[in-house]
DNA sequence: TAAATATATGAACAATTATTCAAATGAAAG
DNA sequence: CTTTCATTTGAATAATTGTTCATATATTTA
């Protein structure tokens, strides 16, 4: 426990330059979406092709229910979009940004 | 539940092109680190300056214990490094990659 | 050596979350 | 219209995780 600030001027200066709690919270929220391996698998598969729920279940070795739950999360986060064709729902990535985020994460891992 | 694969050829082709489970798991692990607002705050603060634990506690409005726990996680993930000077431990970002990851996440949030 | 200080650590607790299972939709086909 | 099929949904469960609190460690100072 500290009685006083150790580097008062520096710490206050940095505190003033901080981004808003709200923005930093939102940034964390986006990363949280990518922070699950099932979702990462889905994202990478959709990077390769538009796919339906049962395709994704097969590709990721998960149940269709699990995939459907995760797809809902990805859709709410605006990372994927879907279109319906009869009984089948096709999912794809919303935009290039999703791929960019994935690739930067991948680079980081591969460079260690 | 599906008896058979709906798009057998496509699904098998995509499955063959998938990255290894291990790599995708590791990618998720990195994003998981960024998926907490306290850690994101720490990372952004350290982007501005090298700081000690109590500075970070002040800047992020958290307890020193909480910050210390999070710094351990960040250090294990090789996202931050530290140096000791007397009683004080100074933390800083490990490399530019950490900043890049943060910035891409920030861009994504700000573009919505 | 004892007191003070900065940080670290471990256990406990609460909260969040991913999966499973069972059941419900919604659409096509028989 | 009944059955089949693809997907969705909700509740339950198990596992993970961030914070707190108390205590420990390490370093400096009195």
Q: Could you tell me the mean pLDDT of chain A?
A: 95
Q: Share of helix among residues of chain A?
A: 55-70%
Most extensive interface between two protein chains, with residue counts: A-B, 58 and 58 residues
Q: What is the oligomer described by this structure?
A: homodimer
Query: Low-confidence runs of chain A (pLDDT<50, min 5 residues)?
Result: none
Instruction: Compute the CA-based radius of gyration of chain A.
Output: 19 Å
- Estimated structural class of chain A: alpha+beta
How far apart, in Å, are the first and last alpha carbons of chain A? Answer: 35 Å
Taking the sheet with the most strands of chain A, its summary is: 3 strands, antiparallel
Strand share of the residues of chain A? 5-15%
Number of strand segments of chain A = 3
**Count of helical segments of chain A?**
6
Give, in spatial order, the strands making up the sheet with the most strands of chain A.
1-3-2
Which H/E pattern describes the elements of chain A? HHHEHHEEH
Q: What is the overall silhouette of chain A?
A: elongated
């Amino acid at each position: 426990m500290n009685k006083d600030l150790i580097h008062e001027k520096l710490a206050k200066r940095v505190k003033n330059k901080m981004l808003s709690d709200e923005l930093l919270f939102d940034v964390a929220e986006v990363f949280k979406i990518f922070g699950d391996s099932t979702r990462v698998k889905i994202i990478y598969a959709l990077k390769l092709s538009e796919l339906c729920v049962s395709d994704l279940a097969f590709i990721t070795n998960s149940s269709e229910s699990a995939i459907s739950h995760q797809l809902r999360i990805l859709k709410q986060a605006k990372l994927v979009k879907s279109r319906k064709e009869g009984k089948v729902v096709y999912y794809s990535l919303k935009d290039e940004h999703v791929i960019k985020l994935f690739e930067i994460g991948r680079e980081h891992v591969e460079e260690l």
